[in-house]
Design a protein that fits this description.
- Two copies of one chain form a homodimer.
- Chain A is of the alpha/beta class.
- The first copy, chain A, has two domains: about 160 residues, Isopropylmalate Dehydrogenase (3-Layer(aba) Sandwich), CATH 3.40.718; about 160 residues, Isopropylmalate Dehydrogenase, CATH 3.40.718.10.
- Chain A is built from twelve helices and eleven strands.
- Chain A has an eleven-stranded mixed sheet with strand order 3-2-1-4-11-10-5-6-9-7-8, sandwiched between helices.
- In chain A, about 50% of the residues lie in helices and about 15% in strands.
């Protein structure tokens, strides 16, 4: 099994300044990994020279003339994407030169191009963006969709549950508890979308569906996989970041530049700071696009070197677990069951 | 102007054990307030006797035989609500015996009964639930809808913006900055609902519309009024509670029962604790149902005495500002402008 990751070296707010050091770190930490960097060769080599890693045996560069800007609409990105670092990285996966693609570029463009270049798995209506979120008991929880689909129907939401379940099962080793995010726990609560999807999940023997959970239970370890549409998931995740930032601000204001207060705060609240770190998007970096014929990991645009390395590790993890194939197999089983 | 509040004394998780002491406190703190308690007379008098306030000159009791249970569906509540404490409190507002109703009971039932008993203001399609949320700079921010409407159209969302703007203006004294909650700041982002509503808001000269904001900006003081549908608003608010609870848990685990650590933590993080308190639903208690021909304030079911007193204060505030009349006037202006 190959372990080659195609990295869009131009993506994100900082481009090669972050992607290249992240690539070098990732190679250092995984001896079996190979990386192909897609982007402006002079910008990439400048960074590699600075790091004294110009001739790394497991790193190659493919020059690309174009970059898809952060403000480009997905439809525009599709039309004018030829030769762009993002598209060429995806094409490397499509033709088998790489086993996964990682990009910190424009999310909408990445989703549109991924669908166009890699295509969906059979039976998948829409790919979904999934990520791990922190958890009160330091266990794993996955939330999807995080914004790939601003409006969904019940079938799509059901597929998200199946795909999320497959991903979680790979880590947990048991059948994950799947819940729908809703505005109440009782069956009567919610909109038509969640109610219809709840019925489908309750009928499906392959999914360990545990019912609705509410926003305040996201981090409570009540469910392993939490399913919602992309609008709700995106708002919910970003709201969490907003609250975490509110606290970080508060702490900073309280401690100020006083080194004594800093020391005491660190002693007293090591665990609190870890939690705040966990809710920092850079830490849970590496949201995966599920449902495609290939592995695509989206990094935060603002990711730093460590965060982008996390996204690369996420891609390696998915390559090793053959996530797309497992999703495809499971969907086939579930859909067969639903129809016969 | 009267200042009479009808209190559903049976609502909430604790009923008269919380509502009666809250009523007594509210009377103590506002010398102009009169309260009518609706509920089981023996349960209410038991509590009043404990507090030695059996014959308070500004407190009266109306006995009700029924209570609407928390798990009752809105449709069921409507059919079987006669003689219930919630309905009788609302009827007191409808006939002019009280100027506002406060209940910590079943939210769905309260909304359904409010619409049935009080009716909507002319031109209002659907009432919305609004509440203040904390803010980085300790200013005011309002979020609506918090769950009254699980699905909305653009006209409804537009009306929420108008109603929220009226409420905020009463406190701020200036034209409030109104934003739509979305999954991106750029005009191309979001679902059809927010895009259509954004167009309507941008065209409206009466609303100081500032564009989209994202979940992480909810508490950032970028907008005074943040508008979204009830599903998104509810998930977002509850997610915030979830994150706050995650931190509170962490702090508790860190400090444990060590009194020395407690003392230092209080000294170091007074402001942080205040923020956590602010995100505690009991503190921002008192969500108002806007768009009705009367004032209805919904308290959290789990509210304690102080929190329920906050909800009563919120009702008093709205009576003094004549919020329903001001909403009605503003809506008439805005709708006239849109149609001519």
């Amino acid at each position: 099994m190959g372990l080659t990751v195609a990295l869009d070296a131009m993506g994100g707010d900082f481009g090669p300044q972050v992607t290249v050091p992240a690539a070098v770190q990732a190679l250092l930490h995984s001896p079996e990994l190979k990386l192909i960097l897609f982007g402006d060769i002079s910008a990439i080599t400048t960074q590699l020279t600075l790091l004294n890693k110009l001739n790394h045996p497991r790193l190659s560069i493919v020059h690309c003339d174009n970059v898809i800007a952060n403000e480009t609409r997905p439809s525009q990105a599709l039309r004018h994407s030829k030769g762009s670092s993002m598209r060429m990285a995806l094409e490397a996966v499509a033709v088998g030169d790489a086993d996964a693609c990682v990009s910190a570029g424009n999310t909408g463009a990445l989703m549109a191009l991924s669908r166009y270049v890699l295509k969906q798995l059979p039976g998948v209506e829409r790919p979904a963006l999934i990520s791990e979120i922190p958890n009160r008991n330091a266990n794993h929880t996955w939330l999807l969709d995080l914004g790939a689909n601003v409006s969904c129907d019940a079938d799509t939401l059901f597929q998200f549950a199946v795909m999320g379940s497959v991903v979680a099962e790979q880590t947990l080793g048991t059948s994950p508890r799947v819940a729908l995010l809703n505005i109440g726990e009782e069956a009567i609560k919610g909109n038509d979308l969640v109610k219809r999807c709840a019925e489908m999940l309750a009928e499906s023997p392959d999914i360990n569906y545990i019912g609705y959970i509410e926003g305040h239970q996201l981090y409570s370890d009540k469910a392993d996989v939490i399913v919602c549409d992309g609008f709700v998931g995106n708002v919910s995740l970003k709201t969490s970041e907003g609250v975490a930032n509110l606290f970080i601000d508060c702490i900073k204001r309280n401690i100020g530049r006083n080194p004594f207060k800093r020391l005491i705060a660190k002693w007293l609240f090591r665990e609190l700071f870890n939690s705040l770190q966990q809710l920092n998007p850079d830490q849970y970096n590496g949201a995966s696009l599920l449902g495609l014929r290939g592995i695509v990991v989206k990094s935060h645009g603002s990711a730093d070197t460590t965060a982008l390395e996390n996204a690369i590790s996420q891609a390696v993890y998915e390559i090793k677990r053959q996530i797309p194939m497992k999703i495809s197999d499971r969907l086939e089983e579930v859909l067969l069951e639903r129809h016969y």
